[in-house]
Design a protein that fits this description.
The chain is mainly beta and 702 residues long. The chain contains 9 helices and 35 strands. Strands 2, 18, 19, 20, 21, 22, 23, 28, 29, 30, 31, 34 and 35 form a 13-stranded mixed beta sheet that branches. The longest helix is centred in the N-terminal third of the chain and has 13 residues. The relative contact order is 0.12. The N terminus is likely disordered. Bound molecules: copper (II) ion (CU).
């Protein structure tokens, strides 16, 4: 494998540049920022190497992707109308990775999706790069892979060529001198559930039309009553919904217009650089920061993946997580009308968090002293079958404040901490997510997702909030609570501006947390806290542990009033006190699913419970399954089925945590919402003999 990549560690540790790239050749950054400290990433120190990838989990290299291209092209198994996408490393079985040492032979497989527009079929192709052959080719039958760049190009042409769409738009008063796509912003959205329309042998995508022809911003209120469904295989519009809808109103949604945004909000790089010493080293794909160490991965579907997360506990490198990733992101709109009822989008499985990742700029989206890392990704549209996405992953330290404190008279113990943030941005149409893993010095890891952008809106006849009138003019007995149900135009949303309703929706994120606490043999228990029922005493806060034995019995929902948590522990690893070394999943905020019971077994089923524990199985990576886009009721590659009758005690187990947010829009969310943060903490519980913050980080002052 001759493609150069960086392999050698910077040894000087003096200077660093804040733009680095992994998986590709050395690239000289546009900016060279020499920062203080020992953050070790000096491009000057990088030695080019000809070995290519050097670890079983390294992402596919440029040379490997060229090989994949050639193997696919020479196989003779695909028509000229085939597009490839969703290419990523097919990770080796965990056993091979865990037993890896230098010199070990391991497979290099690429997982490729092939969409044959001529045969109207999609395939999963596993390419053996070392053996230069296709290892397997599986017909996906009724399933459809998520969108690829070719789809939107095709869909645009189909819209432009369809006379009915053109007529329908003109009848609504829109001006279309040339191609429809030149005159009207189009939104292509994955098909969503629609048993009446779903058909085998079709690759479907929806089209919605923005009501505002004159804005830069494409996410204005959609034209009410109009939606098209396109089959990308037969290359035609299979359904055009053209129902009477609310008239077009010029709403101030175009946030790129300074008049809408107000001029004083112009962006400036206001996030100050911190001048403290840094303690991060990045060597090949591994990161070390204080006691933490882990390996970075990035793919088009999940975006950032962390592997082999371990904590150096007094010289002993103790495993915590084998793999941590966002396994699915689901956004579902909860308006039952024809134009919205299908709108549930698997942002990861149907669009791709890596595909949607955006570059970040130190001083703007991330602090000025952040390190940004470019990543090489497969790109069949390029002659070399790969491309580099700049500045995708970022790492920065931030002040965690006073994290430990004790005062007695003139003496204090005070610990000032920093924390390491590792993350990436993904922009999925109207929303941008920042997915952050935050490593703390006390051994905990926080996962944070920040949501920001524009809510989706629809035009309505109402100019003012009717519900608010009812509240204002409350009738009935003065001493009784009055219930006011939102109805009419506001039945499933909020009037955020005259004639504009922000539709109620839920955001769901599922984390796949493959814990390996001090090894693979782990168990899980649920903890609830409360006063023991029937106890003779009035007080007494007691904890009940429920040892979980069968995967199907692990599906539990967060319960704030019982402080419910889930602990994964290693029964063979015992702390000083006898406590079994564990990590607890401690929920912060969460939501209850808005789906009806009928959907529990399917792709959205992961939203039904906060906690899930499954036995580790190679290849089970996504809560909504590998191909959720047009999955039907019969689809069984979902978390619900992963959590089957198998036993999970004392074995390699995986925790899946679902984090939800019910978004009832406010007028302040329009036209831009302030970013909001959801999080969950992974907290050591019995893992350490004593708090790792104690010791050299603490100061005893008088
Ligand atoms: Cu939202």
């Amino acid at each position: 494998m001759g493609e150069p990549g960086y392999r050698k560690r910077c040894t000087t540790g003096e200077n660093m540049l804040h733009k680095v790239s992994f998986g590709d050749r050395l690239r000289i950054p546009k900016q060279r920022h020499f920062l203080l400290g020992v953050l070790c990433w000096a491009l000057l120190c990088i030695q080019l190497s000809s070995e290519g990838q050097a670890h079983p989990l390294d992402p596919l290299t440029g040379d490997e992707l060229i090989s994949v291209r050639d193997i696919l092209a020479s196989s003779g198994r695909f028509s000229g109308e085939t597009s490839f996408g969703w290419i990523q490393l097919d990770e080796p079985p965990k056993r091979i990775v865990q037993d890896y040492h230098e010199g070990t032979v391991y497979p290099r497989l690429a997982d490729v999706t092939a969409i044959d527009f001529q045969k109207r079929k999609a395939f999963r192709v596993i390419v053996d790069i070392k053996e230069s052959r296709i290892l397997s080719l599986t017909d996906l039958k009724t399933l459809q892979p998520g969108l690829i760049p070719r789809d939107t190009g095709l869909a645009t042409t189909i819209v432009n060529d369809d006379p009915q769409i053109r007529v329908a738009l003109i009848n609504r008063g829109l001006h279309i001198p040339g191609r429809v796509s030149d005159s009207i912003p189009l939104q292509f959205i994955p098909f969503g559930p629609d048993p009446g329309l779903a058909q085998p042998g079709a690759r479907l995508v929806r089209v919605l039309f923005s009501s505002d022809q004159n804005s830069v911003n494409e996410n204005g209120p959609f034209l009410d009553g109009m939606m098209a469904v396109i089959d990308l295989y037969s290359k035609r519009v299979i359904k055009l919904l053209d129902a009477p809808g609310a008239p077009i109103v010029n709403a101030p949604h175009d946030v790129f217009d300074p008049k809408v945004r107000a001029p004083e909000t112009a962006a400036e790089p206001t996030r100050a650089a911190r001048s403290n010493d840094k303690h991060v080293t990045i060597e090949d794909h591994t990161v070390s920061w204080k006691n933490w160490g882990f390996r970075l991965g990035f793919n088009l579907r999940e975006g950032l993946v962390l592997y082999q997360v371990a904590f150096d506990d007094n010289g002993r490198k103790r495993p915590v997580l084998y793999r941590a990733s966002v396994s699915e992101v689901l956004t579902s709109y909860d308006d039952p009308s024809q134009l919205w009822s299908w709108m549930e989008i698997f942002d990861e499985g149907s669009i791709g968090l890596g595909y949607s990742s955006t570059g970040v700029r130190p001083g703007y989206e991330v602090p000025a002293d952040a390190v940004t890392i470019g990543t090489l990704v497969p790109d069949p549209g390029e002659p070399r079958f790969h491309d580099v996405l700049e500045d995708r992953i970022y790492l920065y330290e931030r002040d965690a404040g006073t994290t430990m404190y004790y005062q007695q008279g003139p003496r204090t113990i005070s610990v000032q901490s920093t924390e390491l943030v590792v993350g990436f941005f993904a922009s999925l149409n109207n929303y941008t997510y920042a997915f952050n893993w935050v490593f703390r010095q006390d051994g905990s890891i926080n996962f944070e997702v920040t949501l920001g952008g524009q809510i989706l809106t629809k035009l309505v006849p109402s100019k003012a909030c009717e519900t608010c009138e009812k509240i204002k003019n409350a009738s009935g007995a003065e001493d009784k609570n009055l219930t006011v149900q939102q109805t009419g135009d506001e039945a499933y949303g909020t009037l955020v501006y005259p004639n504009v309703v922000g539709v109620n929706h839920q955001h769901w994120f599922n984390l796949r947390l493959d814990f390996d606490i001090d090894g693979e043999s782990n168990s899980a228990m649920e903890n609830t806290t409360g006063r023991i029922d029937g106890a003779a005493v009035e007080r007494g806060l007691a904890v009940t542990h429920t040892l979980l034995r069968r995967a199907s019995d692990t599906k539990r929902s967060m319960k704030d009033e019982m402080a419910r948590t889930l602990t994964v522990f290693n029964p063979a690893s015992v702390a000083q006190s006898g406590r079994l070394a564990g990590y607890s999943v401690v929920p912060m905020e969460n939501a209850a699913t808005a789906y009806s019971e009928a959907r529990e077994t399917g792709t959205v089923g992961f939203s039904f419970h906060s906690f899930w524990v499954t036995p580790y199985r190679d290849g089970e990576l996504y809560a909504a399954g590998a191909y959720p886009t047009q999955a039907t009721k019969e689809y069984k590659d979902t978390l619900y089925y992963y959590a089957n009758e198998e036993l999970i005690q004392n074995r390699d187990i995986v925790v899946w945590y679902s984090l939800g947010f019910t978004h009832v829009p406010r007028p302040e969310d329009y036209p831009l919402m302030s970013s909001m943060k959801l999080s969950v903490t992974l907290q050591p519980d019995g893992f350490f003999q004593r708090n790792p913050l104690l010791g050299r980080e603490s100061k005893d002052t008088r």
